[in-house]
Amino acid sequence: MSFKIQTLNKIAAVGLNQLDRDNYEVATDINNPDAILVRSADMHEMNISDNTKAVARAGAGTNNIPIPELTEKGVVVFNTPGANANAVKELVMLSLLLASRPVVDANKWANALAGKGDEIPDLAEKGKSQFVGPELKGKTLGVIGLGAIGYMVANLALKFGMEVIGYDPYLSVQAALNLDHNVKIAETLDTVFAKSDYITIHVPQTNDTKGMINASAIKNMKNGVRIINIARGGLVNNADVLDAIKSGKVACMITDFAAEELLNQPNIIVMPHLGASTPEAEDNCAVMASKQLKDFLEKGNIVNSVNFPKTVTDNPIPNGGTRLCISHKNIPDTISKFTTILGEAKLNISSFINQARGDVAYNIIDVDGKVTEDIIEKLSACDTVNRVRAIYN
């Protein structure tokens, strides 16, 4: 087996090292790649080759990838949930502190004392009173989204002496098990808004969550609330927050998403998307993305896809046989068409796995014997099929 991988961004070497050079050609300039590794590059205007079978995002968010179009073509899109969670968690905790103690403004003011010589210590003592800020201990933190990052933020905030309220209607069993029992679970977002002195957001940006922090939500919040957004820029309506800061309803916002209207505004600290900008996180994401691509290309397995169902087999490909990986629309009677075609070709099915996710279905079918190109063409001709791929042993 030999595969061509195109990289659209600089991917950490420790990740690319997962792809052995005997079987993988990895480069930025590659025509008709089998797969693409990407971090932040915008793929929406890309002309993606019909040969491309998968895209792996070395990070959690996939807004830079045209997922619906790729799904129609049977292209699996992977992400790396949790790989950068610790880095983001640490930045959130820093943001909570920055939202409380105006150290950025204090630093600017102190630097302006340059040239005052021996007067500086006295001037600093006299000026420090303008930079007073509250402690975190005893305050209430609302955590919206208790996934890989949210639950860690909630647990660590408890250690700072905060009260923590979490909200997540899709709380997973694993996250629930990891969550400290002292974290209170809210039934509604309005409960979080009404009770929280600080609010931090940890949800993906979807049609349902876009602009979720808006004038209506802010109206239900405490006076002087502090908002942290290290998740996605579109989750916050910037104009509404600016109005709320001017009125004093919102005391401060820390965001990891730069926008023209937020720059050089009082009580707003803007960072240039630093959430996963640690060498450890970049390495973790690159390793995870590369391993997922390798497992998919060599074995057909799908783990951590944002558009295809999780489908995994530990079975080896039959000796001298074929593994068929078929993606199709999740419509009744489709599978019977596959078995009929293979049966008419006198090909024995030794293993068959079918998984579905909404309108998308995926199959791993192990066949004793070589599946010829004409059989693949018959399978591909089924009107519900998006892609058929054969892996030979």
Write the layout of secondary structure elements.
Layout (H helix, E strand, L loop, with lengths): L2 E5 L5 H4 L7 E4 L7 E4 L15 E4 L9 H6 L3 E3 L6 H16 L2 H9 L8 H8 L12 E5 L5 H10 L3 E5 L5 H6 L5 E2 L3 H7 L2 E4 L13 H5 L5 E5 L8 H10 L2 E6 L12 E3 L8 H21 L22 E8 L4 H11 L3 E10 L2 E9 L4 H8 L4 E8 L1
Give structural attributes.
16 strands, elongated, alpha/beta, seven-stranded parallel sheet, 393 residues
How would you sum up this structure in a few lines?
The protein contains 13 helices and 16 strands. With 393 residues, the chain is of the alpha/beta class.
Element-by-element helix/strand order? EHEEEHEHHHEHEHEHEHEHEEHEHEEHE
Helix content: 25-40%
**Separate helix tally:** 13
Distance between the termini: 9 Å
Net shape: elongated
Number of strands: 16
* Unreliable runs: none
Mean pLDDT: 96
Rounded to an integer in angstroms, the radius of gyration calculated over CA atoms is: 26 Å
Strand order of the largest sheet: 8-7-6-9-10-11-12
**Structural class of the secondary structure composition?**
alpha/beta
Strand coverage percent: 15-25%
Query: What does the main sheet amount to?
Result: 7 strands, parallel
Polypeptide structure, described:
The longest helix has 21 residues, at 279-299. Helix 3 packs across helix 6 (150-159). It contains 13 helices and 16 strands. The protein is of the alpha/beta class and 393 residues long. Helix content is 31%, strand content 22%. The strands form three sheets. Strands 8-7-6-9-10-11-12 form a seven-stranded parallel beta sheet, with helices on both faces. A five-stranded parallel beta sheet has the order 2-1-3-4-5. Strands 14-15-13-16 form a four-stranded antiparallel beta sheet, with helices on both faces.
